[in-house]
């Protein structure tokens, strides 16, 4: 998630690692790492304000960028930090502020306002430089899979075009015209198969198949404009089951993708369910495949949601998939972590239940308790 946070929030940035097993936050005082499953505070460092904190899976490597409130934490300096030793491994300095950083086990991507740099993460040798349109918010999406490792960047300042770049093979893959208005949010599925986008209008969410640059789904989020803060696919390595988004209204939106495909096998009606098959989709889809959780965050407060787990429930007598259950974690920039269970049955009925909620800035680490 790009560092777009207002200084009025206690949290300056938030990110989950590549398998969503952990998440990190940056604050005015330092940064913290939590276990997503337990909520346990695993690591904290109080050395100043940070606007980027990115993890490499569950390793000890962090990519961190300071807020510039003190000379040693320049927003133009990327520090690769080892949490085991508590020391900086390497530093990379740039001419302008770093707006986003993404990593996998082979690549390090650094996004500036008008350039994007691709490095070999082991040697830190620079592999490519991508000139981009002015990208003031550091908007990007990244799929960490080594087989389908794509980077998505805005391709236009006047419309919602997406540039897709293959980070492993180091070449431009395609450009997708997704919206009439400029982009506000985007996300790639974990294996790089699908990309979801929203424009500054925020009324339509579109999903494209990356390999063919073709539209697969189009969902109407709402009638009135809203700023989309985040988009996230479910973790399926095939067709993602669910897509979630957070918006400035304080709501979390859930869209049924792959699960509706299971339903369509037993409901062969040719109206809406026929139209949800990728390749024959309009912008006026049935609201049955969209549900809203209202008031997850106060209106206007940034929030970031991910789908950590999806389970399918089958009828034991027929083996037919009859329900889908997702675990959705939400970080709000006013300092809260929430986790919901979302169930969708074969009648397209959505049911939300809050499983846990806690304040991120008041959690005490196990080390502090034991000492």
Describe the structure.
This protein has helices at 258-266, 272-275, 366-370; strands spanning 11-16, 22-27, 31-35, 41-45, 50-55, 61-66, 77-82, 87-93, 100-103, 107-111, 115-120, 126-131, 141-142, 150-154, 160-166, 171-179, 183-188, 194-199, 204-209, 214-220, 228-233, 242-247, 252-256, 290-293, 303-314, 321-332, 336-345, 350-359. It has three helices and 28 strands. The strands form seven sheets. The protein has a four-stranded antiparallel beta sheet with strand order 1-2-3-4, with no helix packed on it. Helix content is 5%, strand content 49%. By secondary structure, the chain is mostly beta strands. The chain has a domain at 10-98: Thrombin, subunit H (Beta Barrel), CATH 2.40.10.480.
Mean pLDDT: 89
| Unreliable segments of 5+ consecutive residues | 2-6, 262-284
Q: At CATH's second level, what is the architecture of the domain at 10-98?
A: Beta Barrel
Which structural class is indicated by helix and strand composition?
mainly beta
How many distinct helices? 3
Largest sheet: 4 strands, antiparallel
Number of strands: 28
**How much beta, percentage-wise?**
over 45%
Radius of gyration: 20 Å
**What strand line-up does the widest sheet have?**
1-2-3-4
Question: What separation lies between the terminal Cα atoms?
Answer: 34 Å
State the helical fraction.
under 10%
Q: What is the fold named in CATH at topology level of the domain at 10-98?
A: Thrombin, subunit H
CATH class of the domain at 10-98: Mainly Beta
Shape assignment: globular
InterPro entries: PROPPIN, WD40/YVTN_repeat-like_dom_sf, WD40_repeat_dom_sf, WD40_rpt
Subcellular location: Preautophagosomal structure membrane
Pfam family, one: PROPPIN
Keywords: Membrane, Repeat, Transmembrane, Transmembrane helix, WD repeat
């Amino acid at each position: 998630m790009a560092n777009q946070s207002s200084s009025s929030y206690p949290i300056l940035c938030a990110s989950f690692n590549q398998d969503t097993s952990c998440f990190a936050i940056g604050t005015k005082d330092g940064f913290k790492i939590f276990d997503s499953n337990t909520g346990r505070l695993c690591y904290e460092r109080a050395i100043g304000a940070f606007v980027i904190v990115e993890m490499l899976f569950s390793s000890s490597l962090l990519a961190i960028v300071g807020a510039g409130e003190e000379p040693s934490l320049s927003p133009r300096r990327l520090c690769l930090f080892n949490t085991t030793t508590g020391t900086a491994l390497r530093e990379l300095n740039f001419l302008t502020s770093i707006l986003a950083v993404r990593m996998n086990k082979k690549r390090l991507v650094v996004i500036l306002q008008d350039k994007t740099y691709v490095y070999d993460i082991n040697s830190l040798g620079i592999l490519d430089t991508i000139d981009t349109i002015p990208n003031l918010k550091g908007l990007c999406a990244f799929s960490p899979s080594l087989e389908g490792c794509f980077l998505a960047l805005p391709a236009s300042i006047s419309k919602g075009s997406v540039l897709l770049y293959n980070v492993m093979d180091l070449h431009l893959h395609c450009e997708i015209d997704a919206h009439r208005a400029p982009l506000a949010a985007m996300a790639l599925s974990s294996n790089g198969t699908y990309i979801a986008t929203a424009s500054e209008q925020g009324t339509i969410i579109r999903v494209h198949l990356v390999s063919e640059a073709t539209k697969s789904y189009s969902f109407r989020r709402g009638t009135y404009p809203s700023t989309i803060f985040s988009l996230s696919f479910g973790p399926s390595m095939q067709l993602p089951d669910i897509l979630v988004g957070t918006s400035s209204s304080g709501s979390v939106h859930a869209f049924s993708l792959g699960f509706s495909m299971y339903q369509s096998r037993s409901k062969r009606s040719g109206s809406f369910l026929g139209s949800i098959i990728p390749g024959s989709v309009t912008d006026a889809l049935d609201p049955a495949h969209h549900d809203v959780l209202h008031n997850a965050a106060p209106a206007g407060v940034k929030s970031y949601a991910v789908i950590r787990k999806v389970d399918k429930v089958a009828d034991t007598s027929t083996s037919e998939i009859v329900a889908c259950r997702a675990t959705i974690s939400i970080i709000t920039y006013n300092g809260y972590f929430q986790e919901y269970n979302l169930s969708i049955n074969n009648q397209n009925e959505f049911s939300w239940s809050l499983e846990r909620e806690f304040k991120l800035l008041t959690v005490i680490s196990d080390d502090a308790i034991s000492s």
